[in-house]
Write a structure and sequence with these properties.
With 745 residues, the protein is of the alpha/beta class. The chain contains 27 helices and 23 strands. The strands form seven sheets. It has a six-stranded mixed β-sheet with strand order 5-10-11-3-12-13, sandwiched between helices. Strand 7 and strand 8 form a beta hairpin. It binds adenosine-5'-diphosphate (2 copies) and zinc ion (2 copies). Keywords: ATP-binding, Cytoplasm, DNA damage, DNA excision, DNA repair, DNA-binding, Excision nuclease, Metal-binding, Nucleotide-binding, Repeat, Zinc, Zinc-finger.
Length: 745
């Protein structure tokens, strides 16, 4: 059969320079290139975008009203597209009722199994659902947790009632609510709460409702109840939903605790006592997936074989992609980006559709080098079912299995956007592209690490899978924490160590929560300097150069867009016709600084701005962006358009100043080309030279090799992990027999 291609003619989205490209169908194509070179602009902003748009066009006008809106990408022509499925790293999120069991469609199969074969059994499969009134625990309504008042947040133990010991809103001395405690005669209003007797404390906090006489209420009978009891009645145990806003205000006073009735199991007693071979439906969801498979294989239930086999098949798929350390009761909101992507992958793998176009965004994120082959197997399986697989990836082991490689470059932003190479792996290695150069080269092990003298040590912990271990981090050096996915790295570093050292700065990949008005310049705090430069040059007010203030375009108010309200249609945002999206009042653009107006300056890349500005402070901050590999961003680029890796590096840029801190970075190489990794290493070393302690959770072998100190956790994921296998300099890890990481260094 003749090879078919997806064909792009003159793609110009973002930085693409009239890209022409042929992508073989039914094959695995990996897109490589430095970050900012234009990979996503091709794969997501052009191919996936156009596939989505073409699919939408096949629906009726009415149906389209309910679908996401796709605009046409900037390209002359695309031929031969198939329906595209984007499997990205957006976290699965979801509410407290969404678990790995529900999202993987395995829990419904267990419900069928239990409704038919459990003893004693109840009939309908809904009765085995914690989301159904007939199956849920009545106290927590299937959530497994309840919200209670956090007494330590609500009470200042060092104060008396007269001094305002009750910190809840509406309880300050003299208020009606305060009197209902202070005027009961139960308490000495000048006695500090910490000096109360046990009885007094019980009365103040937990007393059940009773009638009392209170003087300011004219000696009328009033109802007295403890602070916790009243708080729960007013805010938590209500039929009516308390407004989100009110709940948000009370958040600092509440904690989530395990439901005392079901002990966090979510189900009611009927469900929990209904069993197959001594296991309730809760018991199976609490088991680690690889252990659950072993248990199911021992189940001899006549007639149930087809359902059990089907469950085992799905569980096996999850284990094969390296998720065997999870359990079905794990809430999806607690999964990392990489874990979320792998769960989504498995879902699609069990589909029998063929001829689709699957698109992955750095699927190796979060995977130990040992497990990358599992990912490769999965990509190959998807291809062999007759699908086209496109992958944006930096990991050399994934690049190696590609049928076809598209290398984008040569550099980032306006210096990128060209196809440097399109062909197979072995010929790529013969070229002189940045990618080829780094694929051919490895950094040596750091045999001269910094001297270790003192340590920060966390408390011992058994959280999640940890085996009563503490983390000992050497001060003032560069430490990497390694181990297979699920071994306990995040738990030990982010949940235990970081909580013991609250001044440790966690620089993560979460989006930077800001308004649509924030950009790289406002985030780094260089806007004031820029506005002042314009104001001084023109002898006018600096506020004119802010679209949040006097400089705002009067039509759109400085947002650059206006909302169209068309009947029968969703609200649509379109570019403001007055300012053409640049957000400024048009007369402001007449003021120039060094021959440029404010909009032209905001459109400069960091690189260009570095040459343009002379102010020391502005230059220093721009320099920090350059150092973290973000010189291709325009300084006015909205933060909402940045990827997770870019957000992390932007936060890093902001922190590159003082010494004496502890920094924690979680996979800082995400989204980075092999050539950018030396920059990150450079930054880390510079931070350490300034007297900081840097802890990095990382799978990238180049980074691990270059550290001063390795802490390896394992040996496996889940219950077979959670131990510290090795702590010491990189060169000696080879001697640690148990360590899987050692085999890859
Ligand atoms: P890669 O995927 O290779 O990291 P991208 O395709 O994301 O690179 O980015 C290529 C260029 O386009 C970069 O200069 C980037 O800043 C720019 N860019 C990407 N998305 C947007 C956007 N939504 N608005 C403006 N510029 C963008
Ligand atoms: P790593 O960072 O090495 O990938 P984690 O610390 O995320 O490992 O996980 C270690 C173990 O703890 C795994 O068995 C994982 O399923 C479990 N775990 C992690 N986070 C949670 C959570 N929020 N709730 C329950 N279990 C968790
Ligand atoms: Zn409960
Ligand atoms: Zn406008």
């Amino acid at each position: 059969m003749k090879q078919q291609f997806i064909e792009l003619v003159n793609a110009r989205e973002n930085n693409l320079k009239n890209v022409n490209l042929q992508i073989p169908k039914g094959k695995i194509t990996v897109f490589t290139g430095v970050s900012g070179s234009g990979k996503s602009s091709i794969v997501f902003d052009t191919i996936a975008q156009e596939a989505g748009r073409q699919l939408n066009e096949t629906y009726s006008n009415f149906t389209r009203l309910f679908l996401p809106k796709y605009s046409r990408p900037d390209i002359d022509e695309i031929q031969n597209l198939s329906t595209a499925i984007v499997v990205d790293q957006k976290r699965l999120g979801g509410n407290a009722r969404s678990t790995l069991g529900t999202i993987s469609d395995i829990l419904p199969l267990f419900r069928v199994l239990f409704s038919r074969f459990a003893i004693p059994h109840l009939g309908y499969s809904n009765a085995y659902s914690f989301n159904d009134p007939s199956g849920m625990c009545p106290v927590c309504e299937g959530i497994g947790k309840v919200i209670t008042l956090n007494v330590d947040a609500a009470i200042d133990w060092n104060k008396s009632l007269n001094e305002g010991a009750i910190l809840l809103p509406g309880y300050s001395p003299g208020t009606y609510q305060w009197k209902s405690y202070a005027e009961t005669g139960f308490f000495d209003n000048d006695k500090k709460i910490k000096d109360y007797s046990e009885e007094e404390r019980q009365k103040l906090l937990y007393a059940e409702p009773e009638k009392v006489k209170m003087k300011s209420f004219g000696d009328f009978n009033a109802t007295y109840e403890g602070i916790v009891v009243r708080f729960m009645r007013q805010n938590i145990n209500r039929e009516k939903e308390v407004s989100k806003k009110a709940m948000k205000q009370l958040e600092e006073f509440t904690t989530n605790t395990i439901c005392h009735s079901c002990e966090g199991k979510r189900y009611n007693d009927n469900v929990l006592s209904s069993k197959i071979h001594d296991y309730s439906i809760y018991d199976v969801t609490a088991l680690q997936l690889n252990e659950l498979i072993d248990v199911l294989k021992t189940w001899e239930v006549p007639d149930a074989k087809p359902v059990i086999d089907s469950i085992i098949e799905r569980l096996t798929n999850l284990c094969e992609i390296g998720l065997g350390y999870m359990s079905l009761d794990r809430e999806t909101a607690t999964l990392s980006g990489g874990e979320s992507q792998r769960v989504k992958m498995v879902k699609y793998l069990s589909s029998n559709l063929t001829g689709l176009l699957y698109i992955f965004d750095e699927p190796s994120t979060g995977l130990h080098p040992r497990d990358v082959y599992r990912l490769n197997d999965l990509l190959v399986k998807m291809r062999d079912k007759g699908n086209t697989v496109l992958v944006v990836e930096h990991d050399p082991d994934v690049i190696q299995i590609a049928d076809h490689i598209v290398d984008v470059g040569p550099l980032a932003g306006s210096n990128g956007g060209n196809i440097m190479y399109s062909g197979d792996y072995s010929s790529l290695l013969q070229t002189d592209t940045l990618t080829a150069r780094f694929l051919n080269k490895h950094s040596p092990i750091n045999t001269n690490p910094r001297t270790v003298t003192e340590f920060y040590e966390s408390r011992k912990s058994s959280l999640h899978n940890l085996k009563n271990v503490s983390l000992r981090v050497p001060k003032g050096v560069f430490t990497v924490v390694t181990g297979v996915a699920g071994s306990g790295k995040s738990t030990l570093v982010n949940e235990v160590f970081a909580k013991d050292f609250p001044d440790a700065l966690q620089i993560d990949q979460n989006p930077i929560h800001t308004t649509s008005r924030s950009n790289a310049a406002t985030f780094l705090g260089i806007m004031n300097g820029i506005r002042k430069a314009f104001a001084d040059a023109n002898g006018v007010d600096a506020g004119l150069f802010s679209y949040n203030s006097k400089g705002a375009c009067p039509t759109c108010g400085g947002t650059g867009t206006v909302e169209l309200n068309l009947s029968f249609m969703d609200k649509m945002e379109t570019e403001c016709s007055e300012c053409q999206g640049n957000r400024y009042r048009q007369d402001v653009l007449e003021y120039l600084y060094k021959g440029k107006n404010i909009v032209e300056v905001m459109d400069m890349t960091v690189q260009e701005a570095l040459d343009f500005f002379e102010t020391k402070d502005i230059k220093a901050k721009l320099k920090s962006l350059e150092m973290v590999g973000l010189s291709y961003l325009t300084i006015g680029q909205p933060l909402s358009t940045l990827s997770g890796g870019e957000c992390q590096r932007l936060k890093l840029a902001k922190e590159l100043k003082a010494g004496g801190h502890i920094y924690i970075l979680d996979e800082p190489t995400t989204g980075l080309h092999l050539s950018d990794i030396s920059n990150i290493l450079h930054i880390i070393n510079e931070m350490v030279e300034k007297g900081n302690t840097v802890i990095v959770i990382e799978h990238n072998v180049e980074v691990i090799r270059q550290s001063d100190w390795i802490i390896d956790i394992g040996p496996q994921g889940g219950s077979e992990g959670g131990k510290i296998l090795y702590e010491g300099p990189p060169a000696e890890i080879k001697q640690c027999e148990q360590s899987i990481t050692a085999k890859y260094i």
